[in-house]
Amino acid sequence: MQAILPLLQDPAAWVALVTLVVMEIVLGIDNLIFISILTNKLPQEMREKARRIGIGLALVMRLALLGTVAWIVQLTTPVFELFGHGFSWKDMILIAGGLFLVWKATKEIHHAVDPVDKDEDFIASTASTTFASAIGQILILDLVFSIDSIITAVGMTPHVPIMVVAVLAAVTVMLVAATPLANFIEKNPTIVMLALAFLMMIGTTLIAEGMGFHVPKGYVYAAMAFSALVEVLNMFARRKRERDRKLKVTTTH
Known about the structure:
Elements: H1 4-8, H2 11-39, H3 44-66, H4 69-74, E1 78-82, E2 85-88, H5 89-113, H6 127-156, H7 160-187, H8 189-210, H9 217-252
Antiparallel strand pairs: 1-2
């Protein structure tokens, strides 16, 4: 408690907290898109449970990693060098997570384009196996996004209490937004393809980061926001055409 009181009286700590909360929420969007797409493949009665478990695992993982900040910082230390670039454990985790995201998004796009080819779907058709498989995949990505999130937090502030509050705030937003986002994606099929494209871009960015090529997050999220805005305009245009068509049919009869 004595360590927290000085932080409450420090304006710089409040600025760091607000900045970190916003940053953690933005970083959580990647995690949330993946969870929404994956849980929408489950039977209706299992989706809400899977989302809560997935986001709960993200919270537990982030808080557990915060308890090992000293170890997390060491993950950025190069362990071997290849082609003139030193690879750390963080780099290898980001590359593995990025490859998984690219593979997953590519596979889902393939099934969206060619829905007849269902036998290749790596999620089994039985409910129990599907649920376990979904949670397993969420767990893998939770680990990747959690490590990226905590390393970002460590780089922004040395105060663990501020990191804990920021993580709790971000996960709370994820919990509140999970179901509305998943429902929105389900009701708008074209959004699914856009979200899968986002996952592919995020995966490519993670691979680039792991290979030592820094990609400013602002560029990535600006591209995502612009694409989402274009899709929203397309949705409005489609709805207007549908209303005009229905009105024309009504007046004709």
